[in-house]
Amino acid sequence: MSETIELSTPDGTESERAVRLIDCDVHAQPTPPMLMPYLSTRARRYVERYGRRAPSEPHTYPRVRGGGVRLDAWPDKPGHWPGSDPEKLCSQLLDEWDVDYAVLEALTSLDCYDQPEVAVEFARATNDWVAEEWLDFDDRLRAAIVVPHDYAELAVAEIERRATDPRFVAVLMPGSAQEQLGSRRYWPVYEAASARRLPIAFHTGGFMRHHGAGPPSSYLAYHANISCVMQSQLASMVASGMFAALPNVRVILTECGVSWVTSLRWSLDAAWELMGADHPQLERRPSEYIRDHVWFTTQPFEEPADPTHLLYAIEQAQLADRLLFATDYPHWDFDSPAQALPRAMSPELRSAILYGNALDLFGFPPFRSEPTPDQAP
Amino acid sequence: MIDCDVHCAPASIDALTPYLSDYWRQYIEGAAVHLHGLVLAYPPGAPTSASDRARGFPAPAVPASYDALKERVLDETDADLVVLNCLTALEAHRNPYYAAALATAVNDWVRDEFLERDERLRASIAVSIAAPEDAVAEIERRAEDPRYVQVLLPVRSELPWGHRSNHPIFAAAARHDLAVGLHAWGRPGQAPTPSGFTTTYLEDYVANQTIAQSQLISLVCEGVFDSHPDLRVVLIECGFAWLAPLLWRFEKDWKSIWREVPWVKQPPSEYVYRHFRATTAPAHLPRDQHAIRQLVEMVDVGRLLAYASDYPHDHGDGLSLLLAELDDEGRGAVLSTNAAELYGRATPGRSATAR
Amino acid sequence: MKVVVAPERGFAPGSHRIVTVGGRSIGVFRIGDRFYAIRNRCPHQGAPLCLGRVLGDAIAKVPGDVEVSRSVLLLACPWHGWEYDLETGQSFMGASEPRVRSYGVQVEPGSALVEQLEQARTERVPGPYVAETFDVFIEDDYVVLET
After folding, report:
1. How many domains in chain A?
2. How many whole angstroms separate alpha carbon B230 and alpha carbon B30?
3. B288 to chain C nearest CA, in Å?
4. A-proximal residues of B, 226-255, CB under 8 Å
5. Is residue A318 one of the residues assigned to a domain?
6. ipTM value of the model?
């Protein structure tokens, strides 16, 4: 359990290639039977009898396109679904697009309705499955640590358990939990991640209360609202003072778009000017905290009619060195590495988004070894 | 010039009891009901609840009488027309019968205290938010009086305003050529934001713009504008700088998922400029003319915005930078023409005759 | 350039074939007795368009009351679901959508038989791109694509 895994180093039979593409949000998704072998008898029996307790978001808001996935991502193998087969994913994503590193985020525990004993087992089982079936399978793969986030002590223990495996490069949190994400309830999780130099990826989805305006009636409205949820969560993180209290925390807001950040920064800064004196947990302007602590994955990248406007949004929110390219494979709103970034984007910005910013954030080496052609099997 | 959002409110419930039945007077006395003046939305001590100038007058900061309004706003303003928004009925009441009675009493009070006293004044119709049928009844009750120009709803709701259970409200407004105003704040008592219960006023204050975005999405998705092609919705005190990115997101998603809402015949951006307006306060904008210029390129502010002083609230002074980017025609639209079209039931120079 | 796709008898209604012609991947669909051919590449982000589903246009007069057209057929991209009129390649989501190349298809059992179907086209706002159309016809009981 505490075995340290070392990343492979070139042994002379391999050549080095410069890293050119890092995919920061890919979904390895186990089918339910795949996790069962990793569970204790007690947990397995409980789940077999009573199931996971969380209401399924895809049942409440059926994913109108392809059931939520690219129709061409279904593996041919029986018993698999999109994202469950490492061979299919590595072929259809990594090989096809020449991806150097992909960060796997298995969305098995975004919500935390289960009793603690079951919740922690599912997190652990997911991480075990990812390590054995995926990280051991292809050395381009990395992963975010799944944790039972609403049980902070148990989440911290799971982070500690995985931290010795350098292939786990982030901690996965949901975009919506039982409390606001700035709540002190979650700070121990953030502290543990930061102490291990792991950024925290907050992935859209989870508890999804829909307060404020109330629950939408369609998947379209739900999907369009995803950035609204994250606006609220980012405001919560800023207002809570967590960026001042946890100076090393690094946050990746994942799968919620990017261009909404500008007007939120303006509003938070204006509010801080008007009433910041009464919120001393904010020692600096909100936009400075966002600048220092928050990254964003690009997918689903906004597509204004005039691509220049997207560049304005990136400039105004100081995002040039904060955007992390992501495909979200195998979901339907997949962003193609070749097409998703507008042509109007400069080569420097394109490189930063496709790999440069991720190299800095995750500390990946900028060169990767690969077998030279005559040594390839 | 037209000022689209000026607040008034009774100083206490005593101002409303003459307009309530014996039963409700008994209810108020027996339960010690008093108006809390939306303290969760506008805490009296919060800097944003009242400007320094407003605080210079005797409390309450929100004008509670015509004389107060005249002294503090009308005598100082260049506006030919002022739209009064009394938010009292947005206080959360779970008793739908009381909520309906209170809304009626508020509208009667606004009429007698303000509308009867000054031809420059118009008002939003306060309605119960506890039951759509009561809101419809109150709209019908006021429809013949052209001094009521808008139906007032809070931007926060338990079901999004586009939900089909709310459609009769929009039908009634459209039927009588009334705008619908979604005003900042609304029901407290439930988690007020999409992320959950907030713990700071600062977040609550910023949340209005986020919730307005959700309401915009809802109204378009549920076909409210396809059903009522002339309906106008005004986002009051909910900001506007967020509009372009929201539309990019919404429109991109609609291109993929339109099949779920095939009654939405146009791209979302078409609906927004045709059917939505936003008041200018708060204008949370950076002191960076370059960024403002870019904003003006992305958001057709000359078409979208209608000026509001939002007296007595204070959100800072971002608007002046924005107006500096507009040409005369754009400034004229923001300060006057857009509002005249919105509230065109009776505009300056036209007598307020019954329809 | 003419390419034989399949024997007509073996090309069942409701099925489709994907062929490669001169480096281009093209999907040929049979809906009832009509054939359509469309480029297997979505102009949006390059997805294999012809792996998507063919759907009748959805028409709603009021919210909740939706009819599915039998005459206007749209091919939905398997990724983002952008839909293209099978006959013309026109996309119908908004004002600035790229069309995909579609290839005109006709069934000609031995003699020229041009079917002029009166089809109500969708009321939706079309995009600015026009798909390239090609002929498909039956020659000696084979479905033939002309590019």
Report:
1. 1
2. 45
3. 32
4. 239, 241-242, 244-246, 248-250, 252-254
5. yes
6. 0.95
Please state the rounded mean pLDDT for residues B260-272: 91
| Domain range B2-346, its CATH number among 3.20.20.140, 2.40.40.10, 3.30.70.580, 3.40.50.970 | 3.20.20.140
What is the span of the domain harbouring residue A195? 20-375
Judged by phi (left if over 0) then psi (alpha if -120 to 50, else beta), residue B237 lies in left
CATH number assigned to the domain comprising residue A173: 3.20.20.140
Specify the higher pLDDT residue, C120 or A324.
A324
Among residues B135, B113, B98, the alpha carbon closest in space to that of B21 is found at B98
- Specify the length of chain B in residues: 355
Q: What is the pLDDT of residue B353?
A: 37
- Considering only CB atoms, C48 lies closest to which of A72, A334, A339, namely A72
Check if the beta carbon of residue C131 is closer than 8 Å to that of residue C12: no
- Best residue of A186, A227, A228, A273 to probe chain B, by most B CBs closer than 10 Å: A228
Tell whether the model's pLDDT for residue A375 goes beyond 70.
Answer: no
Residue A99 lies in a domain: yes
Please list, in sequence order, all residues whose beta carbon lies within 8 angstroms of the beta carbon of residue B33, skipping any fewer than 6 positions away.
B13, B27
Q: Is residue A13 part of a domain?
A: no
Peptide bond into B282 cis (omega under 30): yes
Entry pTM: 0.92
For residue range B290-324, what is the model confidence (pLDDT) as tens digits?
999 999 999 999 999 999 999 999 999 899 999 99
pLDDT digits (tens, 9 = 90+) for B60-108: 999 999 999 999 999 999 999 999 999 999 876 889 999 999 999 999 9
User: DSSP code of A278?
Assistant: G
Give the residue-averaged pLDDT of C64-81.
90
Q: With respect to residue A139, please indicate whether it lies within any of the assigned structural domains.
A: yes
pLDDT over 50 at B326, yes or no: yes
CB-based contact B74:B311 (threshold 8 Å): no
